[in-house]
Amino acid sequence: MKYWLMKTEPESYSIDDLAKEKNKTTFWSGVRNYQARNFMRDDMKKGDLVLFYHSNANPPSIVGVAEVVKESYPDFTSWDENDHHYDPKSTEDNPRWFMVDIKLKKKFPEALGRNELTDVKALSGMELMRKGSRLSVQPVTKKEFDAILKLASVTP
Fold first, then answer.
1. CATH superfamily of 3-152
2. What is the rounded distance in angstroms from the CA atom of residue 20 to the CA atom of residue 103?
3. Termini Cα distance of the chain
4. Which of 136, 133, 132, 152 is nearest to 144 (CA)?
5. Tens digits of per-residue pLDDT, 88-105?
6. Pairing state of beta strands 25-28 and 61-74?
7. Contact 9/54 with Cβ under 8 angstroms?
8. pLDDT at position 154
9. In this prediction, what percent of the chain has a pLDDT beyond 90?
10. 61: burial class by Cβ within 10 Å (0-12, 13-18, 19+)?
11. Do 99 and 72 form a contact (C-beta atoms < 8 A)?
């Protein structure tokens, strides 16, 4: 099993939106960064756990845990000219972008603000804590994942 962090802007799609979905499950579409795409396409597997992160929030925060319930498949939003994730270079015959399905496992009782994480030794090497880190999908170590759960006082 691997561990991940996935960022979303809560005004576009929040953990509360995920909680309202049928079976608390959605497809994670719209990723348009090649490194993030490669993580989803090549490395994410069913059963992997995901830290759900609200970026562009005040403060940016980890707000819960989700699980990958369907491995990568072509991101059909890239083919829809009316979708803001449309990419004319991506086609059904030659898809450029991929997505996975995730299911909400647990919303944290309290959001863990990024500023609360800066002094946690176990998180010092975490990609999220690196200055200038903008990847919307990033790997997390088991040690980092466990430290986050401990801070949130939850089990997955």
1. ph1033 like domains (3.10.590.10)
2. 11
3. 13
4. 152
5. 999 999 999 999 999 999
6. unpaired
7. yes
8. 83
9. 94
10. buried
11. yes
DSSP state letters, the chain = --EEEEEE-TTTS-HHHHHHSGGGEEEE-----HHHHHIIIII--TT-EEEEEE-SSSS-EEEEEEEEEEEEEE-GGGG-TTSTT--TT--SSS---EEEEEEEEEEEEEEEEHHHHTT-GGGTT-GGGSTT---SEEEE-HHHHHHHHHHHT---
Q: Where are the domains of the chain?
A: 3-152
Question: Phi, psi at residue 13, to the nearest 5°?
Answer: -160, 115
Contact criterion met (CB below 8 Å) for 97 and 75: yes
Beta bridge mates, 99: 73
Contact 82, 40 (CB under 8 A): no
